Amino acid sequence: MARRSSRGRHLNGILLLDKAAGASSNFVLQRAKTMFFARKAGHTGSLDPFATGLLPICFGDATKMSAYLLDSDKKYLAECRLGVATTSADIEGELKCEMPVPTLSDRLIAKVFQDFIGENDQLPPMHSALKQNGQPLYKWARKGIEVARATRKINVFTLKLIQYNAPSIIFEVHCSKGTYVRTLAEDIAAALGTCGHVTMLRRLKVGFFDLKHSFTLDELAETLAVSGVDELESKLLPIDSALEGWPSVDLDEDAAFYVKQGRAVTVPCAPTDGLVKLYQNGEMFIGIGKILDDGRVAPKRLLSSV
What we know:
Helix content is 22%, strand content 33%. By secondary structure, the chain is of the alpha+beta class. Strands 1, 2, 3, 4, 7, 10, 11, 12 and 13 form a nine-stranded mixed beta sheet that branches.
């Protein structure tokens, strides 16, 4: 059971939330934080209000892992309406232009998709939270100002056609962090000889986290009403689940003591480089370590509670 205080519970863990359409990521974060009566919480990469799907929420010490979830690959299901473009490249924007939609087939669309697989340069949309001159791009966009912005490297690992029902394409994409699916959809539409915008976007995966293990706000509210906040807490995943697939290092009590003091230690059979999960006595997760050039294990990001 989490400890309570007047400012909320000292709660640690990760909630896999299935965000509904129409709400901002911050709104659902605050709702979840209130439901759990949590003192500290943060999400791991916002979804646009019209978008739905997986939004991992970190409570307490788990917020220290949020940066690594932000860096994770993502998987989405999206629908692109061909022949109509909007100012934001999604259903929330205003009509920008209309174009005829050429005769297309599943085979032709799949062939065009192949050109987008792999590493590419992508120009971030004006309607995004990226900052330029201290302001998010969307604030400039709302003023009707388009500012210069640099392209960014993205990687599309898979791009699969789910259905083509003219004039709409439904596709699934597995991509690297920082990929704007709205921009990808616009570029696909242009490659097909027309324009387009995203009418549906659902996030299916964030790293190893899968939407099928998530909960809606309504489901959480029902659990809270029927069984109370302690049962709600059972929905949380442990902090180290954010680092699934990482190599781990087990520290004995002496080594763990020195690591907690900020010192590097020698650990037999440790990995030779990179970041690692740190455990004390094989059970208690204490944070993230870094393998130094000399092979020692140094603390990088430790939990406050250790």
